[in-house]
Fold:
Amino acid sequence: MRGFRETLPSALAVLLALTQCTAGGSRPDIPHEDVRIQLMTSLPLVWSEGASMEAILSGQAEPAPIYRYWQDHYDVTAVDSLEQLSRDDPDIVILAQPRAMDPADLADLDGWVRAGGAVIILTDPDLLWPSALPLADPRRPLVSGLLSPLLGHWGLELVADADNSATVVTLRLGEHAFATRGIGALEPISPDSVPGARCEMAEGGILARCAIGKGRATIVADADFLDAGLWPEDARRFPQKSDAVRFLDSLVQEQIQPGKGDR
Structure:
């Protein structure tokens, strides 16, 4: 895994921000507005952390930059349950460090994917997201991903890196490089005993691309990179300039296939 990231000395942390921007701020050429996404997350993306209903209604609570970008470029809906997944049939489900999911939700997601659905999963075994809420507050993001039953059903195990710390590192995935903390890894477990699931590991185990029945799943063993506090200041105002955003756009592009709505 060390080949895919570099620990940043604190004096260079600011310089990392510059690597997340490109002069043109280009994005993959995909039909953004036509992509219907359902998002489940414990991260404070839809509204700022601890936002009250009064703050939301008064406009004092703002979405995180990544969610603001998704609102501008996709047809995105934040959901608390996947009970209606088969009926709603979005183009993509994104699980970004979701809260503990009901077994029925996990079964619904597995069945939907096997029938031809597409899911992008960001699951972090060692989330280091800053929070001002007390440790026992249920509104805090989950410290560790709780998708082991689903991942195990697909022949994968999420593991933490014993060398992880709160140090900011550069995560390099393909042509993308961005700041994060606490990266995990995915490991295959008994692949021969998992029916209808085939996963290919990439980037030293940080990323897995799986064929699940007729559908597909892309799993990333990290979620801290969604924290805009790690982004360049300019990218917080214009998220399309963040390489973290462009990386997620590339995963969305991989999942979009002509005729998918015909399943």
Summary: The CA atoms of residues 154 and 197 lie 6 Å apart.
